[in-house]
Each structure stands twice: as C-alpha cells, then as structure tokens.
C-alpha cells in the first residue's frame, strides 16, 4: 500500500504524518479548510464559539480565554485532528462557549468517520441502558460535569514540597456523563448558562483490522433549530495495540459502595467499564470466587456475548489477591493452617487462573510494631513444602531493612519510590511497584491537578520498569472512617472525598483533605441523594480515569517501540515527557503538565511504529 507523508507546523513543533493511502480532500471533494469555514457560521442561538482540544486538558467552565482555544495539537484550522492505531480509544473535547443569551437544549451528534477513498468507516451506535455495553458503540458521547474547587487539597502525601498544581482552583471538569443520562443531570440535550463553557467529550474506538488512512466526520451541534458543524479528521496509523496490557493498573473496588449508593449490585458492569479503560478493579478473592467470577478471570466476561467490544476483548483480569488491605483471618499466623490455606489457594489458582498475579496483602502501610507479625506470616509461607510456598507476600511500603527477607512484592508510594532501591530489590528477585500519586514525584489523581497527571504515572512506570501501578480506591464515595460527622457524602456535590481533619490520634501535619481522592468512578444512580440521580444503571467515568486509560495506551506505544528496536524514539519521548520522576524529581515537578507535550511525543511514536514496517517518504508538504 502506498503512503503519503506531510509536515504540519504547530507553533515551534512539527508533526510528520505517515499514514495510509489517502487523498488531500474529504470524500465530497471540498477541502478541509472549506469544511471548517462552512462550520464556523455561528447560527446556533447563544453560541459564542466552538473549539476543540485533546483529552489532556481540563477546560474550566468559566475559562473563556484558555490558551488552547487559539490552537493545540488537536485543533488547527478549525478542524479537530486526532490520531491513533488500531485497537485504541482516542478522545477529544468540543468546548461549546455561550454568549450572554445562553444556549438552550444543546444536542451533539457524530454519525461516523469515513475513510477518504472508501474502504473503511467507524459508525456511531446509540447508547443503551447499560453504560458498560460497548458492542456496536465505537463512538461514545459524554457531557462534562463540573465541580467547584475553592482551595487546593491540603495533604502532604499528595502535594509535597513544590507539588501544588499550577491552577488549583475553579470549576473543574470531573465526571463524563453519558449522553442518555437523566435530563437536567448531564444528559443531552443540555442547557449552557450565559458566558460559560460546556465541554463535550467524545471517545472513538479504532477497531482491529481497520484500514490505515485519513477518516473524516463532523460533530454537529444542534440548538434552536440550527446546526453548527465542527469537522473531524482521524488519522489511523498502520499498527495495532495488543489486547494484553504492558502495565497492570490495579484499582481497589468496593461493590458494597455501589449497593449503598445505587441500591443494587452492578459489579460486572463496573468490571466491564474498567476493562474498556484498560484497568482492573481489584479486591480480595476467595476460593469460591474463582468459580463465581471465572468469566472475569478467563476473559469470557469481556466478549461480545456479554456486550463487550474494545481493548482487551477475551482477555481476563490478571490481579487475583488472596487478601486485601491486611489479613482479616488468623489463618496465616499459625504455621499448620498457613500451609493448608496457602496450598489450597495456590492449587485452585493454578487450575482456574494460571496466569494470575496473586499476593497476600500484609497490614496496610505497616508501622515497625507490626513487623514481627509480618515476619511470622512470611516465615510460615516460606517454610511451606507445598505449592503454597509460592504465594507472594505483599506490603504497601518502600524497602525497609526491618522487613528484609519477608517481602516478595514491595509497593511504595510514588513519593517514596527510589529507582535505585527498586532496581536493587529486583536484582534479588523481588517485585517493586508503586501506588497513588504524589506531586512533584509523579502525577496526583486529584480533581484540581492537570488532566495529564493520571497519564504521567504510566510513563513513570515504563521509565523505571514498574510492572503494576496501584490506586488505593476507585469508588470511595462513602467518607473514610476518620471523617468527622456524616460519612454518606453527596459525592456529586462535595468534591472532598478524603478528610481526616480533627482526628485526635493524628498529628496536625498528618491531617488533611483531598478533592476526588479515590474516586475515579461515580454512581450512575443515587438512592441516598435522589436529586443527584443521573439515571445511569452503572458507573460514570471521569477525566482522571480517561487519562489513566490514555497513559495505559501510551505505555503500549512505548513497549511496542522498544520491542521493535526504536530505542532512539523511546528515549526521545521519555526525555520530553518524564525527564525526572519519583525521587529523581527533587522538590519540583519536572514531568510534562500539558497535553500537547504528550501528544507530540505520542505522534512521533505512532509515526515510528507505522513507518517501521512501511515505506515512508521523508518529507512533503500537505
């Protein structure tokens, strides 16, 4: 197949496109510029502007002068320009700005994307009752819901030293509400108040086997009987992301929270939703769970028969812990019962989930007073002559000499992760993971941090060889037990999701509050606070979760490039995005904090991956 190559300048950066066979004009013969010009007739009542940005920025509701408005890597010449490989989800935002008259009943449509010259298309399918159902739905449309942050999160374990985000206050976009949600609660059509932004988030899944090339479509904004058109151009590169992840993202999940807030168990919908974001919801498994949830582990839960299509089709979850957040049983404290319990577990796991990553979770973030018990349990496991001896002992702690010989899997907070220590432990045959996020060491998963903070953690993991990234919670809707007063919080209205202020047993320096901590998913239904009910029978995602997905896909880009010997391209991307992370960062943020930097690096990786197996011209004008 022939290829065309061209250079598009964006500020000081230059993108070299190397796609499949294509033409320079949309199928109707008009040029991209003509289509954009036609789309800019602002005939929709109340519409002041409509522009686009990639998934790596949070555009505040009242920020009418955001610098990305004049141009960014996804918005040039009044055209949305996105790109990706097959089996990848790409996303962009259309920011709708109202004038003083407001916009009433704004609706949005993207019917599809068609390959120039024919031979391929991505076609929109309407959503159904189940938000995790993705068969026939490669294009998904969401409205962004905003939360007001009046002061930055105050917790040293989130923003250490010089880690406070550059723009920590304002009306931040948080939840991505499906277009078919309840009217007045984010479902389309939606009203846009005067002189505000309302962003629309659009996911596009690029199917396996789709021919490479340029694909064209149009986002239509409808209101007041008029339509405003925003042209979209998708470049599909000639490579495909694997279904298996190159990094495992383990997000703790409590089904009980779903039962409390939504009034019913919807566990498998949450797992399918997470799977499409290339992350795993995790918690303790029992022997009976290996049978009950076998489809989740062998991948049959993630097939078309179960309503699933997208990344990871037919691939099962990898994380199957024998305990979580400590041990709620004394079985492992006694040698005889530890042997029989671990033998039974490892035998069953070998038969039913042989590729699983399992572990025995020790007391969470243990103090030195808990070390003797950990040593006892580890010794009971290590002296087992049977298969239970292979059950790894896991601890949420950086390396400690006080636990030497007891731990198989260290999991340090990102702020206490030292790459040299991790390398030394791996040389001993141990694993060394990290959890959460602490600026300036890595990105923080808070509402007020940049969108790319969730994305950067996958890059940090790649740079320093981390196999598993752990997020302490995904649906922490009910306030933590240290919270004073009412714990059944209105999570849609109150951005503070962790709060241990006023704890008598906590020094003042160890008290604080955090916006959005542990909440990457929101309840689509609300029985505790009915006025917040979105009418969605399952989970609602967030900008943070979408950027974590983007990071997981970036990790695959980097892994594929390294496998194909594209060392210079990998090193260039790492130097640009994560020159220094973890303890290397010192007291200042050194990783990239704007989406354009990530997208420039990703584009160059995409081109290198596509061109590695294709003939690409060196340069040409578009």
Number of domains: 2
CATH class of the largest domain: Alpha Beta
How far is it from the N-terminal to the C-terminal residue, by CA?
Answer: 19 Å
| Residue runs with pLDDT of under 50 for 5 or more positions | 1-39, 617-622
The computed structural class is alpha/beta
Mean pLDDT: 92
Q: Approximately how much beta-strand content do the residues carry?
A: 25-35%
Number of helices: 12
CATH overall fold name of the largest domain: TIM Barrel
DSSP, total strands: 26
Helix content: 10-25%
- Which geometry do the CA atoms define? globular
What do you see in this structure?
The protein is α/β, with parallel strands linked by helices and 622 residues long. The chain folds into two domains: 34-240, Immunoglobulins (Immunoglobulin-like, Sandwich); 248-476 and 517-543, TIM Barrel (Alpha-Beta Barrel), CATH 3.20.20. It contains twelve helices and 26 strands. It has helices at 32-39, 255-262, 267-276, 287-292, 294-298, 335-352, 371-382, 419-427, 453-463, 543-563, 567-577, 595-611, and strands at 4-10, 13-19, 47-54, 75-76, 79-86, 88-98, 103-110, 112-115, 121-123, 139-149, 170-178, 190-192, 197-206, 213-223, 226-240, 248-252, 280-282, 360-361, 393-395, 409-413, 431-435, 468-471, 496-499, 513-515, 522-523, 539-542. The strands form five sheets. Strands 4, 5, 7, 8, 9, 12, 14 and 15 form an eight-stranded mixed β-sheet that branches. It is globular and about 75 Å long.
